[in-house]
Amino acid sequence: MKTTLMFGIVLMAGAALAAPSQDRPQDYRWSIALTPQPGAGLSRISIPTDVYLHARSASLADVRLFDRTGKPLAFALTAPPAQSRTQRDTLTMRIFPVTGRHIGYYELDNVDIRTGNDGRLLSVTALGGSTPDAAPGLQGLILDAGPPAKDSRIGSLRFTLPPGTDNYNAQVLLEVSDDLKQWDAIATTSLNWLRNSDTQTLANDRIEFAPRAFRYARLSWQYGEPITFAGITAQQVSVTAVAAPRATIALKGTAGKSVDERLYATPIAIPADSIGLQLSEGNTSMPVTLGVYHPASAAPRQRLHLGPQARATQAAEFEPLLNTTFYRISMDGKERVSGDLAMPVVQTAQWVLRPQYHSGTNPHLDSILRLGWTPANLVFLASGKGPYQLVFGRNGATPAALPLVQVAPGFTQEELLALPVATAAKVVALTSEAPVEKTPDGAGLRLAALWGALLLGVAMLGFFAWRLLSQMKEEQGSTDKQEH
Fold first, then answer.
1. Which of 150, 390, 444, 451 is the most buried (most CB within 10 A)?
2. Alpha-carbon distance values, 458 to 11, 18, 51, 260 (Å)
3. 0.70 surpassed by pTM
């Protein structure tokens, strides 16, 4: 009984030693204080550049968020949402009355329209009607909005009555065209103005429709007296995409395996999708191959650019990723320089630059490699007690980020974009060095402790077994003496 109890105690002690320790802010190397806006239960922030520079995981698995008491907070890492800017402008449309003998709106094609070389409408003249005996009158209006702006759409027209007209009621048809030949009917509506004795006016003075791009419009009457409006304005809506915030880093090179080669140590967490080279000397054109080294035994990744076959070295294999030409050339007092080259996302601990023409010397030792990337968004619940700590920089950490639907369930893309933005303070070092862990979460240390506890238990069992055998032998000896 005592032996069994002692063995159970030993096993429980070993299990306690083997259990994972609680995640704490002090287990990480770096910290950034986050301050949400007052009253914001859900906040977002573009991940600061310092996180990418010091994180130990390519997937940001070592990022954590704690409150003031060390309580972990729920957060999600997401790609920045697509953003756009909407601008509304008012355009004054040029009005050209179609005057002639009575014709139906379906006969408005029978007009002579003159335009300038730039498409500007110059004149509109009716060629005739179905009843020659009728007196000439207003039959319709042709409108010119001018050349459409890029990425713009017109979504409504607004009408102003001519002076002296207080009350008016009519139903009109609106057609649009880009070439004055093909017309599309897009809207029909009733326009009416009613003024009372107190000079108060009730008006329905707009035609609204699905926004679309067009230059010319045609207005015809389905009932009511045609009139030449004093003014017609168009509501133009322009929607332009807004690029997500970008981050960049400049890297100095070191000597490579050959005189021409340069190596650029890179933080592993940076998801670089653009690359450039700032040449140290002017009037230079430099064709290069950019790539990475892999261990000779490792299978090369899928190439991001067709180029020379990978060449084996003594301890590593070079994988070319990009072939391009960087330049810096002076012309007429101005300098032309190569811009950054867009590429698929690459994460590596080291970039390798090799000139395609080997000269035996490298005059560009001070050239700077420039990497760019789009930081991810961090969405988090501001629960617990502030201020909050965004910590990072720990070897072997396992991912803690949750899916976005678990952090912000039911939120639409527009609502996520409108979330209040938290403020990030400067990065602070929590420890002089990040904890060194050869296996995730100290598994090696816990395994050694478990084996130690088990061996101790075996030793104790052996001791009790020896004591038990000794007692049995003594009792057997006493029994034999008594029998004799």
1. 390
2. 11, 18, 47, 62
3. no
